[in-house]
Amino acid sequence: MNCYILLADGFETTEALTTYDVLVRSHAIEPRLVSIHDRYEVTSSHGVIVKAHLLLSEAKLENVDFLILPGGKKGVDNLKSSEDVHAFLLKAIEMGVHVHAICAAPSILGGIGYLDDKRYTCFPGFQVGKGEYTGDGVTVDGNLITGKSMGYSIPFAEAIVAKYCGEDVVMNIRKGTMGL
Prior knowledge:
Strand order of the largest sheet: 5-2-1-6-7-11-10
Helix content: 25-40%
Radius of gyration: 15 Å
Number of strands: 11
CATH class: Alpha Beta
Largest sheet: 7 strands, mixed
Distance between the termini: 26 Å
CATH architecture: 3-Layer(aba) Sandwich
Structural class: alpha/beta
């Protein structure tokens, strides 16, 4: 199973990299970091430079099962302002590719109508669209998984693993990461 984590300068470090780490630990999901810029190096909100696996221009939706949008105010602003990202998301949704988001990033989905008639969470103040804001740490509504903030990065990632791989895989990850 494959997923893309879209990175724009200013992405929230923990939300992107913790989610990436937990998905890798599933041994069933292969996450790929995708730079939306014309370069592989993307700088996080805290100045961490990450080298993406591929550029958005190289990303093929036929090769992916779901997308993840991390938060970070500046990163989300950069994702929102990219026409290429907008077109990529609309095409993904049209193709039935699931999109999951955390922190401020659900506002991107709300802005394109993806949250309409869905339950979701996000960082308070970033509610956009006609969906039902829950305010929970993580909200799962069918094929949509959203997280409230950086502090919920692990539960957000675990909810994604649970959806695609099952709770038993989440428990195996916890054994290895928490010494259970």
